[in-house]
Structure formats: C-alpha cells, structure tokens
Amino acid sequence: MVVTIPRLGNTYLAAKALFEALEIPYIIPDNNSKSTLETGARLSPEEICLPFKIMMGNYIECIKKGADTIVMTGSCGPCRFGEYCELQMKLLKKLGIDAKIIVIDSPAEIGKEALWNRISEISGASSMRRMEKLKSLYQAVNILSLADQVDATAHHLAGYERNKGECKRLLTECKSEALKCNGPVSMRKVLTKYLHNLKKINVDKTRDPISITLIGEIYSMIEPFGNLDIEEKLMEYGVSSIRHVTTSWWIRDLIFKPLKLNSPDVRINSKAYLPYSVGGHARESIAHAVKAEAEKSDGIIQIYPLGCMPEIVAKSILPTIRKEKDIPVMTLVIDEMTGEAGYLTRIEAYLDMLEARKKRRLIV
Ligand code: SF4
Fold it and tell me: Minimum mean pLDDT among 17-21, 74-78, 134-138: which range?
C-alpha cells in the first residue's frame, strides 16, 4: 500500500508525520499549481466544483508517482461533496486506474463501526503495536493544530510587524523546515520553535491595522491555491486576518458531532440568520460573519468556488448581516478562469475603502 491524500492546507504535514511514524509508504502531493488544476479539470465534469478538479489533479499526479490508495474526507451532506468520492472512484475506474479510495467521514454519518473499519484498513498496513498507532495519530492531530496556530499567529501579527515581511518569511521558513523533518517528534519541535519565534517578533502595538475576517467554503478557506493565496497577499499589504475554519477545527468538530457538542458558537451565532444546515459550511460562514463584529474586524471577505450551493445561500444572507452589524462584506468567487490581476484589484479597492472608512470613523 502506498498512500496519498489530496493537498489541503496543512494536512500534508500531519499526514507526512503520521505515515512516517507508522512506517507506511506514502506520497505527499506537491503544492497545488495551474498544471494540477489543468490535469484535474481535463478529467472532471465541466460543471463540478473547483475543489473536485484540483483533487483529481492531485490523485493523478500522485498515482503517476506510485500511490495506489487515496485517503480523503467525506460528507453525506446535501451539497456535491457528498458525491465526490463515488464520482472520483468512477472516473479513476473509467481511466483504467486501479486505485482505492478510503473515505474518512463523521461517525454521525457512517456509524462508528464503519469509521473504525476504514481507519483499520489504513493502520493495518503498519506493523506497529496498537498503542503506538494511537500515539502517532495523536501526534499527527497535534501537529495539525500547531501548524494552524502558526498560520493564525503569522496572519494576525502581519498587521503589527515593524520589520515588513517578517511574518511571511518566518511562515515560509517554518513550512519548508517542517517538510524536511522525519517523523512527528522533530516536526513538532520545528513548529513549536516557529510559533515561539513569531510571538517574539518586534511589533508596533500602537498600530491599528485593517483587520479582515475570512469566511467561505472550506476548501477555499483551508487550501491557499483555492483562494489564490489571499492570506499571503493580506500579509504583504500589512493587514491582519482571522480565519476560523481550519483543518484542526474540522477534526474537533467531527469528533464532537455525535455528542452534539460540536462548535456551539456556530450554532448560537448563526441561529438568527440560518438556524439549520444547508450543506457545506454555510452556517459557519454566517456565524463567523456575525462574530466578526465582536472581534472588531473592519471587513469580511467571503470566498467560494463558482457554483458552490451552500455559499450562495450564505451570500444571500450576508447583506442582512452587513446592514444589522454595520460591517462591509465582499464576495470573491473563484473558478479555473479567475485571473489574478482582476482578483488583486478587487482586494486592493476593498482595502482602500476599509481604510477610508476607518479614518472617517476616527474623525467622527
Ligand atoms: S461546499 Fe461548495 S464547493 Fe464544496 S463540494 Fe459543496 S458545493 Fe462544491
């Protein structure tokens, strides 16, 4: 068994650490690129969402390198994500590729036994003892959480740094050093070191930078290629950004879902606007938009792939939140035709408007 995963935010670091600890052969997909998307788009139905196409590109690239088992997360929810694995399996079969897809889904959706069987299918490839496997899994989850903390700290402090570009530089160095590590122990040390270094950078606490809350479809939130690297761009502009949807949040949410103890803040904050799930993470988008006001954000940016049904529902509710909470909202819709220049122009114009609005408010 040679395992691979779709490239999705920081999961590649946790997967690398886990498979190394379990001594299971693996292939980590390269950074997503135009060529990954082109490969995936060529093989996917034209009208399917962007994440599907990028994932297909990941699979093909890794299968060419020798992967034969794909581990992905699933959902039985009402949006197209519920169909991803079935459709991807059929497409691979049609191409004559004999790869296995193991879907890890919430126990609330597929049952504890099915989930356990699927996890055992992967862990069965390791000769380690059960306790060692559980320890490795715990370490991988911990790595994911640390990597998300490093991201969040860099994205927040970028608005306060005295040495321009320091947060971005540390973040880039952290990811590249972590990728060179062998196993979870050394990777944990690297991530902890960079988290510490980021917290120690020279900041100007008197600054009052523009602060943005990012909301939207989960792939566009977690995977930089899915949002055309918006967080990196905001760091370059000296803007602080907040994003609550992360892979470590998603795992916590998944674990506590069967007990109905998952993300109580999402349920509370979205209740007045969207009291039930419409698939994807539309409820989270609404809850985080509501929360943005309390977090003193200057504006909200919603990002989603073209045709994303749950986020279209969220978009239709956002004007009400914008009016009631008096907070500007901009929506960016991404597909394979989105040009970077036009995308950047929209972000810059929005930031200029927020800056002017902030100054006006200070004068009043
Ligand atoms: S959340 Fe949106 S982009 Fe993601 S699978 Fe569902 S419809 Fe597609």
Answer: 74-78
Mean pLDDT throughout 33-44? Answer: 94
Q: Which of 8, 46, 48, 49 to mutate to test the pocket of ligand 1 (most atoms within 8 A of CB)?
A: 49
How many angstroms does the Cα of residue 82 sit away from the middle of ligand 1?
A: 9
Task: Give the torsion sign (CA, 152, 158, 162, 167).
Answer: positive
**Count: domains in the chain:** 3
Which stretch of DSSP H or E encloses residue 69? strand 69-73
C-alpha span between 233 and 71 (Å, rounded): 31
Shared domain check, 64 and 52: yes
Domain with 15, as residue range(s), is: 3-126
Ligand 1 midpoint to CA 305 (Å): 7
CATH of the domain at 54: 3.40.50
Tell whether 144 and 260 lie within a shared domain: no
Q: Give the residue among 265, 10, 246 at the shortest CA–CA distance from 140.
A: 10
Q: pTM above the 0.85 mark?
A: yes
pLDDT band at 75 (very low <50, low <70, confident <90, very high): low
Same domain, 87 and 143: no
Low-confidence winner among 196-210, 252-266, 286-300 (lowest mean pLDDT) = 252-266
pLDDT at 96: 93
- CA 7–ligand 1 middle distance (angstroms): 16
Q: Tell me, yes or no, whether 35 and 112 share the same domain.
A: yes
Can you say whether residue 307 is alpha, beta or left, with left for phi > 0 and alpha for psi between -120 and 50 degrees? left
Does 272 lie in the same domain as 151? no
Provide CB contacts within 8 A for 46, sequence distance 6+.
none
Q: For residue 111, what pLDDT is reported?
A: 78
Residues 77 and 135 in one domain: no
- Ligand 1, atom 7, lies closest to the CA of 308
